[in-house]
Amino acid sequence: MQALYAQLLVGLINGSFYALLSLGLAVIFGMLNIINFAHGAVYMMGAFVAYFLLNLTGLGYWWALLIAPIVVGIFGMILERTMLQWLTGLDHLYGLLLTFGMALIIQGVFQNYFGSSGLPYAIPDELKGGMNLGFMFLPIYRGWVVIFSLIVCIATWYLIERTRLGAYLRAATENPTLVRAFGVNVPRMITLTYGLGVGLAALAGVLSAPINQVRPLMGADLIIVVFAVVVIGGMGSIMGSIITGFALGVIEGLTKYFYPEASNTVVFVLMVLVLLVKPTGLTGRAA
Amino acid sequence: MTDLKMAEVATKPATTQVLSVSDLQAWYGESHILHGINFNVNAGEVVTLLGRNGAGKTTTLKSIMGIIGKRTGSIRFDNQEIIRTSSDKIARMGVAFCPEERGIFASLDVRENLLLPPIVRPGGLSLDQIFDLFPNLKERLNSQGTKLSGGEQQMLAIARILRTGARFLMLDEPTEGLAPVIIQQIGHTIARLKSEGFTILLVEQNFRFASTVADRYYIVEHGKVIDGFANSELSSNMDKLHTYLGV
Predict the structure, then answer these.
(1) Which of B59, B88, B93 should we substitute to test contact with A (largest number of A Cβ atoms within 10 Å)?
(2) A181 with B90: Cβ contact below 8 A
């Protein structure tokens, strides 16, 4: 049973990253109509910013949690202003190719300087150690990642579904021209949205650094699964991407326990099944 | 030039011009839709653009709002040239637009739809005043925007631009597809807005409806304003009008 709980926890951890990343992808897709293949690269950048902050300036984990999403978010907004904005109205394929190219360049630059092996990033002192829950041993840092990710996901959901700013965002997703004609600076809102989505990925990168080390290709490995998660959940639904993210992490963990051979493929098998039955994804709306 | 002269004839002298459009041309992609539109609107007036389907009335409103990609000529609002201005800035100057398709957002409830357009200047209607005009909306505040009936959606589309403080309203076929009793309610609303000093540019196919609220008319045909006259000259222009509109 211990092993089952341990795999469930690993599943929840992975699910946290899936949820944070697919949430950002969903927000970006809704507003910009771009399938952001650079998402794995900015996730990796988040982890690297945390690493630089610690090793160049001495600012630790908690600062990184705050600063990395902002720094990477600003980087994303510059990409949007200088490149992505010109894709408005073009076929999805262009956005996909451009962001895929950006991902290759960003990852290539980091690989050039840091190689492919991982750089260590320590768990902050406050979150070291573990707790005995009776039925299992819970490393505190891992519990923190799950709970903090959940809070960030729900906060993002609340921002988009329940606030005035979120109403602008949802309305602009439906009809940007009309929202702009009401006096809202929609282009600026699009830039900020891309910054928000990218910032969420960077936050996931910081959370992941103490668990998975800091590696130039850490995002490239993860993003393939995240895209499968997004396809299963359905593009454009906020709550859908959160729930699907966590659920698929858990399903993956359970598979690792019951039938380890399939653990790397179970998400893709599910993706195929969902696509066969409901091509728009579980919670997706028809385009 | 002849278009311009006709427009000038119909203008009452010594009133403040809110909007002045001259030689407006507009394109949708490659297709040239407006071929030189000339007209103006004075403060406090209700001006109606009449014309057949596809004449360019909606495109004229959209060009004024700044949501047509390519446009040339001159559009002056409150004595400022806005032909090159982006639509969000035009809205901030006090221009509000109610589109023909109403543009109610499905992912927003009625309250969110109503509160969506930002306040651009003080002096807009309060929510109480809006519910006074459209009592139905108050009952449906928590419904999804697109679950409303066509008439309620039209009321919502008008109501939400009254909050913003914009004093120049452009309404694109507000009576299209609505029941007579609702058309009447919208007519009362326009009359009341006019009495409160709003300036309204209306596009209508429903000529009967337009005649109950309009001060002046312009006839749009093939992307040009070909005629214009005041409501008082309506009876003497009826024959011409029937020819223009083909009714």
Answers:
(1) B88
(2) yes
* Backbone angles phi and psi of B223, in degrees to 5: 75, 20
Tens digit of each residue's pLDDT (9 = 90 or more) over B174-210: 999 999 999 999 999 999 999 999 999 999 988 889 9
Does B66 contact chain A (CB < 8 Å)?
yes
Any CB–CB contact under 8 A between A170 and chain B? yes
Under an 8 A CB cutoff, do B87 and A175 touch?
no
Q: What is the CATH number of domain B3-245?
A: 3.40.50.300
Q: Which tens digit of pLDDT belongs to each residue from A187-213?
A: 999 999 999 999 999 999 999 999 999
H-run or E-run covering B76? strand B70-77
Q: Write down the pTM of the prediction.
A: 0.88
Structure tokens at B144: 């999804």
| pLDDT score at B234 | 87
**Which position has the token pair 């992912």?**
B107
Is the pLDDT reported for residue B237 higher than 80? yes
Smallest CA–CA distance, residue B2 to chain A, in Å, is 32
**Per-residue pLDDT tens over the stretch A224-278:** 999 999 889 887 688 889 999 999 999 999 999 999 999 889 999 999 999 999 8
Q: Residue B94's closest chain A neighbor by CA?
A: A183
Q: What is the mean pLDDT of residues A119-145?
A: 92
- Contact list in B for residue A184 (CB cut-off 8 A) is 88, 118
The continuous run of DSSP H or E covering B122 comes out as none
The residue extents of the domains of chain B are 3-245
A124-138, B30-44, B233-247: range with lowest mean pLDDT: B233-247
ipTM for the complex shown: 0.90
What six digits make up the tokens of B140?
């449906």
Structural domain includes residue A2: no
Q: Chains A and B: how many Cβ contacts under 8 Å?
A: 57
Domain assignment of residue A108, given as a range: 15-216
Cα separation, B125 vs B164, in Å, equals 8
Whole-number pLDDT of residue A115: 92
Q: Would you call A170 helix, strand, or coil by DSSP?
A: helix
Q: Does A56 touch chain B (CB under 8 A)?
A: no
For an interface test with B, which of A159, A180, A185 has the most B Cβ atoms less than 10 Å from its Cβ?
A180
Residue B10 has pLDDT above 70, yes or no: no
By the 8 A CB rule, do B116 and A168 touch? yes
| Cα A227 from chain centre | 10
**Angle, nearest 10°, between helix axes A2-32 and A140-162?**
30
Q: How many CA atoms lie within 13 A of A188 on its CB side?
A: 8
Contact A180 B120 (CB under 8 A): no
Both tokens assigned to B108: 């927003």
| List of chain A residues whose C-beta atoms are within 8 Å of the C-beta of residue B168 | none
Separation of alpha carbons B199 and B55, rounded Å: 23
Domain total of chain A: 1
Q: Report the residue of B87, B97, B171 to disrupt the A interface, i.e. the one with the largest count of A CBs within 10 Å.
A: B87
The answer to whether position A106 is within a domain reads yes
